[in-house]
Protein backbone atom coordinates (compact mmCIF):
# COMPACT_ATOMS: atom_id res chain seq x y z
CA UNK A 1 0.00 0.00 0.00
CA UNK A 2 1.55 3.33 -1.09
CA UNK A 3 1.00 6.28 1.32
CA UNK A 4 -0.06 9.77 0.15
CA UNK A 5 3.50 10.92 0.74
CA UNK A 6 4.95 8.19 -1.49
CA UNK A 7 2.49 8.67 -4.40
CA UNK A 8 4.50 11.34 -6.31
CA UNK A 9 7.70 9.35 -5.88
CA UNK A 10 6.02 6.15 -7.11
CA UNK A 11 4.64 8.05 -10.10
CA UNK A 12 8.07 9.34 -11.01
CA UNK A 13 9.39 5.80 -10.69
CA UNK A 14 7.07 4.71 -13.52
CA UNK A 15 8.27 7.64 -15.66
CA UNK A 16 11.91 6.88 -14.86
CA UNK A 17 11.55 3.22 -15.88
CA UNK A 18 9.84 4.20 -19.15
CA UNK A 19 12.81 6.44 -20.05
CA UNK A 20 14.99 3.37 -20.51
CA UNK A 21 12.49 1.23 -22.44
CA UNK A 22 12.82 0.68 -26.18
CA UNK A 23 10.94 3.40 -28.10
CA UNK A 24 7.90 2.14 -30.02
CA UNK A 25 7.07 5.39 -31.82
CA UNK A 26 7.89 5.28 -35.53
CA UNK A 27 8.74 8.50 -37.36
CA UNK A 28 6.57 7.66 -40.37
CA UNK A 29 6.54 8.96 -43.11
CA UNK A 30 10.05 10.42 -42.66
CA UNK A 31 11.41 7.00 -41.73
CA UNK A 32 9.93 4.01 -43.52
CA UNK A 33 10.39 0.54 -42.10
CA UNK A 34 11.10 -2.22 -44.60
CA UNK A 35 8.24 -4.69 -44.95
CA UNK A 36 8.44 -8.45 -44.58
CA UNK A 37 9.67 -10.03 -47.85
CA UNK A 38 6.28 -11.62 -48.61
CA UNK A 39 4.25 -8.58 -47.59
CA UNK A 40 0.98 -8.16 -49.55
CA UNK A 41 1.18 -4.69 -51.10
CA UNK A 42 0.11 -3.08 -54.34
CA UNK A 43 -0.31 -5.45 -57.29
CA UNK A 44 1.84 -5.66 -60.40
CA UNK A 45 1.03 -7.05 -63.86
CA UNK A 46 4.14 -8.85 -65.06
CA UNK A 47 5.76 -9.14 -68.48
CA UNK A 48 7.65 -11.85 -70.31
CA UNK A 49 11.39 -11.19 -70.79
CA UNK A 50 10.77 -9.63 -74.22
CA UNK A 51 8.17 -7.19 -72.86
CA UNK A 52 4.98 -9.04 -73.92
CA UNK A 53 2.36 -9.15 -71.18
CA UNK A 54 1.67 -12.29 -69.15
CA UNK A 55 -2.01 -11.43 -68.59
CA UNK A 56 -4.31 -13.35 -70.92
CA UNK A 57 -7.49 -11.56 -69.87
CA UNK A 58 -9.10 -14.72 -68.45
CA UNK A 59 -10.80 -12.88 -65.54
CA UNK A 60 -10.02 -15.67 -63.04
CA UNK A 61 -8.53 -13.09 -60.68
CA UNK A 62 -11.74 -11.05 -60.80
CA UNK A 63 -13.87 -14.13 -60.08
CA UNK A 64 -11.63 -15.10 -57.15
CA UNK A 65 -11.76 -11.67 -55.52
CA UNK A 66 -14.01 -11.64 -52.44
CA UNK A 67 -14.22 -7.85 -52.49
CA UNK A 68 -15.19 -7.48 -56.17
CA UNK A 69 -12.22 -5.14 -56.58
CA UNK A 70 -10.96 -6.29 -60.00
CA UNK A 71 -12.39 -5.44 -63.40
CA UNK A 72 -10.99 -7.17 -66.51
CA UNK A 73 -11.92 -7.03 -70.17
CA UNK A 74 -10.08 -9.45 -72.43
CA UNK A 75 -9.56 -9.06 -76.18
CA UNK A 76 -7.99 -10.97 -79.09
CA UNK A 77 -4.40 -10.39 -80.16
CA UNK A 78 -3.70 -9.95 -83.86
CA UNK A 79 -0.41 -10.22 -85.73
CA UNK A 80 -0.57 -6.45 -86.29
CA UNK A 81 -1.25 -5.63 -82.65
CA UNK A 82 0.01 -8.20 -80.15
CA UNK A 83 0.16 -7.70 -76.37
CA UNK A 84 0.74 -11.29 -75.18
CA UNK A 85 2.15 -14.42 -76.84
CA UNK A 86 -1.17 -16.32 -76.97
CA UNK A 87 -4.65 -15.73 -78.32
CA UNK A 88 -5.98 -13.26 -75.72
CA UNK A 89 -4.73 -10.39 -73.60
CA UNK A 90 -6.10 -8.10 -70.90
CA UNK A 91 -7.34 -5.03 -72.79
CA UNK A 92 -8.76 -3.33 -69.69
CA UNK A 93 -7.49 -4.13 -66.22
CA UNK A 94 -8.41 -2.22 -63.06
CA UNK A 95 -8.02 -2.79 -59.32
CA UNK A 96 -10.07 -0.67 -56.95
CA UNK A 97 -7.95 -0.09 -53.83
CA UNK A 98 -10.92 1.30 -51.95
CA UNK A 99 -12.30 -2.25 -52.01
CA UNK A 100 -9.17 -4.41 -52.05
CA UNK A 101 -8.32 -6.06 -48.73
CA UNK A 102 -4.91 -7.23 -50.02
CA UNK A 103 -5.77 -10.88 -49.32
CA UNK A 104 -3.86 -12.24 -52.34
CA UNK A 105 -6.57 -14.64 -53.56
CA UNK A 106 -6.37 -13.06 -57.02
CA UNK A 107 -2.66 -13.90 -57.18
CA UNK A 108 -3.41 -17.51 -56.25
CA UNK A 109 -6.03 -17.71 -59.00
CA UNK A 110 -3.88 -16.33 -61.82
CA UNK A 111 -2.84 -19.20 -64.13
CA UNK A 112 0.03 -17.34 -65.81
CA UNK A 113 1.72 -15.63 -62.82
CA UNK A 114 0.78 -12.39 -64.53
CA UNK A 115 -0.44 -10.96 -61.25
CA UNK A 116 1.79 -10.64 -58.20
CA UNK A 117 1.97 -8.28 -55.24
CA UNK A 118 4.72 -5.80 -54.46
CA UNK A 119 5.89 -4.48 -51.08
CA UNK A 120 4.42 -1.05 -51.75
CA UNK A 121 1.90 -0.14 -49.03
CA UNK A 122 1.36 3.61 -49.46
CA UNK A 123 -2.09 3.41 -51.02
CA UNK A 124 -3.80 6.46 -49.52
CA UNK A 125 -5.02 9.32 -51.72
CA UNK A 126 -7.56 12.09 -51.83
CA UNK A 127 -9.93 10.97 -54.57
CA UNK A 128 -11.84 7.81 -55.41
CA UNK A 129 -10.72 7.89 -59.04
CA UNK A 130 -7.03 7.93 -58.15
CA UNK A 131 -7.45 4.74 -56.11
CA UNK A 132 -8.79 2.78 -59.05
CA UNK A 133 -5.50 1.70 -60.61
CA UNK A 134 -5.53 1.14 -64.35
CA UNK A 135 -3.62 -1.40 -66.40
CA UNK A 136 -1.07 1.26 -67.33
CA UNK A 137 -0.38 1.93 -63.64
CA UNK A 138 -0.22 -1.75 -62.70
CA UNK A 139 1.91 -2.97 -65.61
CA UNK A 140 5.55 -3.66 -64.68
CA UNK A 141 8.13 -1.27 -66.07
CA UNK A 142 10.40 -2.21 -68.94
CA UNK A 143 13.67 -3.87 -68.06
CA UNK A 144 16.78 -4.37 -70.20
CA UNK A 145 16.00 -6.45 -73.28
CA UNK A 146 12.28 -5.62 -73.27
CA UNK A 147 10.24 -3.71 -75.87
CA UNK A 148 6.92 -2.14 -74.90
CA UNK A 149 3.68 -3.71 -76.16
CA UNK A 150 2.22 -4.15 -78.68
CA UNK A 151 4.92 -6.03 -80.58
CA UNK A 152 5.38 -9.29 -82.49
CA UNK A 153 5.93 -12.67 -80.83
CA UNK A 154 9.54 -13.91 -80.82
CA UNK A 155 10.13 -15.45 -84.30
CA UNK A 156 9.88 -19.25 -84.27
CA UNK A 157 8.45 -19.37 -80.72
CA UNK A 158 4.92 -20.09 -79.54
CA UNK A 159 3.11 -19.31 -76.29
CA UNK A 160 4.31 -22.53 -74.64
CA UNK A 161 7.93 -21.65 -75.38
CA UNK A 162 7.49 -18.47 -73.35
CA UNK A 163 6.43 -20.52 -70.32
CA UNK A 164 9.30 -22.97 -70.90
CA UNK A 165 11.66 -20.00 -70.45
CA UNK A 166 13.00 -20.18 -74.00
CA UNK A 167 12.49 -16.46 -74.62
CA UNK A 168 14.97 -14.45 -72.58
CA UNK A 169 14.80 -11.05 -74.32
CA UNK A 170 13.20 -9.31 -77.30
CA UNK A 171 14.31 -10.59 -80.70
CA UNK A 172 16.84 -8.28 -82.41
CA UNK A 173 15.03 -5.63 -84.43
CA UNK A 174 11.74 -5.90 -82.51
CA UNK A 175 9.79 -2.66 -82.76
CA UNK A 176 6.62 -1.47 -81.14
CA UNK A 177 3.44 -1.84 -83.22
CA UNK A 178 0.69 0.77 -83.50
CA UNK A 179 -1.85 0.40 -80.70
CA UNK A 180 -4.75 1.01 -83.09
CA UNK A 181 -7.43 -0.55 -80.86
CA UNK A 182 -6.50 1.92 -78.12
CA UNK A 183 -6.69 4.89 -80.46
CA UNK A 184 -2.96 5.50 -80.41
CA UNK A 185 -1.82 7.74 -83.25
CA UNK A 186 1.36 7.33 -85.27
CA UNK A 187 2.94 10.27 -83.42
CA UNK A 188 2.17 8.54 -80.08
CA UNK A 189 3.82 5.43 -81.48
CA UNK A 190 6.91 7.38 -82.50
CA UNK A 191 7.11 8.85 -78.98
CA UNK A 192 6.73 5.34 -77.55
CA UNK A 193 9.54 4.07 -79.74
CA UNK A 194 11.78 6.86 -78.51
CA UNK A 195 10.97 5.87 -74.92
CA UNK A 196 11.84 2.25 -75.66
CA UNK A 197 15.13 3.23 -77.24
CA UNK A 198 16.05 5.73 -74.51
S1 LIG B 1 -5.88 -8.94 -52.99
FE1 LIG B 1 -7.87 -9.90 -52.46
S2 LIG B 1 -9.30 -8.17 -52.29
FE2 LIG B 1 -7.49 -7.38 -53.37
S3 LIG B 1 -7.96 -7.60 -55.53
FE3 LIG B 1 -6.88 -9.50 -54.92
S4 LIG B 1 -8.50 -10.96 -54.33
FE4 LIG B 1 -9.42 -8.90 -54.41
S1 LIG C 1 -4.14 -11.29 -64.14
FE1 LIG C 1 -4.07 -13.53 -64.40
S2 LIG C 1 -6.08 -14.25 -63.67
FE2 LIG C 1 -6.27 -12.04 -64.02
S3 LIG C 1 -7.06 -11.85 -66.11
FE3 LIG C 1 -4.81 -11.72 -66.23
S4 LIG C 1 -4.13 -13.85 -66.60
FE4 LIG C 1 -6.26 -13.96 -65.88
TrEMBL record:
<feature type="binding site">
    <location>
        <position position="106"/>
    </location>
    <ligand>
        <name>[4Fe-4S] cluster 2</name>
    </ligand>
</feature>
<keyword id="KW-0874">Quinone</keyword>
<feature type="binding site">
    <location>
        <position position="61"/>
    </location>
    <ligand>
        <name>[4Fe-4S] cluster 1</name>
    </ligand>
</feature>
<feature type="binding site">
    <location>
        <position position="103"/>
    </location>
    <ligand>
        <name>[4Fe-4S] cluster 2</name>
    </ligand>
</feature>
<feature type="region of interest" description="Disordered">
    <location>
        <begin position="174"/>
        <end position="198"/>
    </location>
</feature>
<keyword id="KW-1278">Translocase</keyword>
<keyword id="KW-0408">Iron</keyword>
<comment type="subunit">
    <text>NDH-1 is composed of 14 different subunits. Subunits NuoA, H, J, K, L, M, N constitute the membrane sector of the complex.</text>
</comment>
<feature type="binding site">
    <location>
        <position position="55"/>
    </location>
    <ligand>
        <name>[4Fe-4S] cluster 1</name>
    </ligand>
</feature>
<keyword id="KW-0004">4Fe-4S</keyword>
<feature type="binding site">
    <location>
        <position position="100"/>
    </location>
    <ligand>
        <name>[4Fe-4S] cluster 2</name>
    </ligand>
</feature>
<keyword id="KW-0479">Metal-binding</keyword>
<keyword id="KW-0472">Membrane</keyword>
<protein>
    <recommendedName>
        <fullName>NADH-quinone oxidoreductase subunit I</fullName>
        <ecNumber>7.1.1.-</ecNumber>
    </recommendedName>
</protein>
<keyword id="KW-0520">NAD</keyword>
<keyword id="KW-1003">Cell membrane</keyword>
<feature type="domain" description="4Fe-4S ferredoxin-type">
    <location>
        <begin position="91"/>
        <end position="120"/>
    </location>
</feature>
<feature type="binding site">
    <location>
        <position position="65"/>
    </location>
    <ligand>
        <name>[4Fe-4S] cluster 2</name>
    </ligand>
</feature>
<feature type="domain" description="4Fe-4S ferredoxin-type">
    <location>
        <begin position="45"/>
        <end position="75"/>
    </location>
</feature>
<feature type="binding site">
    <location>
        <position position="110"/>
    </location>
    <ligand>
        <name>[4Fe-4S] cluster 1</name>
    </ligand>
</feature>
<dbReference type="InterPro" id="IPR017900">
    <property type="entry name" value="4Fe4S_Fe_S_CS"/>
</dbReference>
<feature type="binding site">
    <location>
        <position position="58"/>
    </location>
    <ligand>
        <name>[4Fe-4S] cluster 1</name>
    </ligand>
</feature>
<dbReference type="Pfam" id="PF12838">
    <property type="entry name" value="Fer4_7"/>
</dbReference>
<dbReference type="InterPro" id="IPR017896">
    <property type="entry name" value="4Fe4S_Fe-S-bd"/>
</dbReference>
<comment type="similarity">
    <text>Belongs to the complex I 23 kDa subunit family.</text>
</comment>
<feature type="compositionally biased region" description="Polar residues">
    <location>
        <begin position="174"/>
        <end position="190"/>
    </location>
</feature>
<comment type="function">
    <text>NDH-1 shuttles electrons from NADH, via FMN and iron-sulfur (Fe-S) centers, to quinones in the respiratory chain. The immediate electron acceptor for the enzyme in this species is believed to be ubiquinone. Couples the redox reaction to proton translocation (for every two electrons transferred, four hydrogen ions are translocated across the cytoplasmic membrane), and thus conserves the redox energy in a proton gradient.</text>
</comment>
<keyword id="KW-0830">Ubiquinone</keyword>
<dbReference type="InterPro" id="IPR010226">
    <property type="entry name" value="NADH_quinone_OxRdtase_chainI"/>
</dbReference>
<keyword id="KW-0411">Iron-sulfur</keyword>
